[in-house]
Amino acid sequence: MKFSSARQYFYQEIHQPDEHIDLAKAALYIAQEEYPYLEPEEYLNAFDTMAGEVQERLPSSRYPLRLIQSLNQYFYDDLGFAGNKTDYYDPRNSFLNDVIDRRLGIPITLALVYLEVAHRIDFPMVGIGMPGHFLIRPDIPDVEIFVDAYNHGEVMFAQDCQERLAQMFQQPVSLQPEYLAPVSKRQFLARMLTNLKFIYLKQQDLEKTLAAVERILLLFPGVSLEVRDRGLLYYQLGNYPQAIEDLQTYLAKVPDAEDAMVIRRLLADLGK
């Protein structure tokens, strides 16, 4: 398979042990497919600059809450970063270069900016893939505080997370331990790409939807639902041989899937 240079860089970055993946680089390679002339080093240098500016204003007592307070003041008061609440589904909210340039983003991309700068000041943080809303927390044992980068760095505790879930789903939600578990770097990137996938699907941009699915499958090869979706996209784009291959693979993996009858009917229409 022949990849674009951006896809090749992405592939190389993610094909190493998870702990060695550079999230910012991988995210910039995602953006580079949209912006072929993007220079990742320019934005990596921007993180270094931000970290240097934060470092100058850090308190002498480096307690987590004090560090978060300093980061919040820098990001939201000084630089003006904010959640894009007027156009949440603008694709630019999912491209790291746009988030840095426009200082607007969605929870996961603002979290990535926060993580990258925190890492550079020796305050490691991890992503928390809570359903419906992405958070971060200090990667320090027994420190159970969470930061909502989308809402001006609001500090939350487990009870706050439960209340936020109840608000989002408009019903009481039992807070399961996995809801507040750290995500791997591959999971982090897959969630970014899943956001793009559904944004482009909503816009009926099938080529870009397919590009998002292809990269999710580079991160997690063989995921049944993504293989199915790739097959359906191939079908809609008129690439019938690839559609048949993916849809047959999907049925072989999940023969009793709820949509198996629909997929079999589609394959019959394709002469298979």
What does this entry look like structurally?
The chain is mainly alpha-helical and 272 residues long. The protein has two domains: 5-180, no CATH class; 222-272, no CATH class. It has helices at 5-14, 23-34, 40-56, 64-78, 96-102, 107-120, 158-169, 185-202, 206-219, 224-236, 240-253, 260-269, and strands spanning 82-83, 104-105, 125-128, 135-138, 146-148, 154-156. The strands form three sheets. A two-stranded parallel ribbon has the order 1-2. It has a two-stranded antiparallel sheet with strand order 3-4. Strand 3 (125-128) and strand 4 form a beta hairpin. Helix 3 crosses helix 6, helix 8 packs antiparallel against helix 9 (206-219) and helix 10 (224-236) packs antiparallel against helix 11 (240-253). The two termini are 25 Å apart. It comes from Nostoc minutum NIES-26.
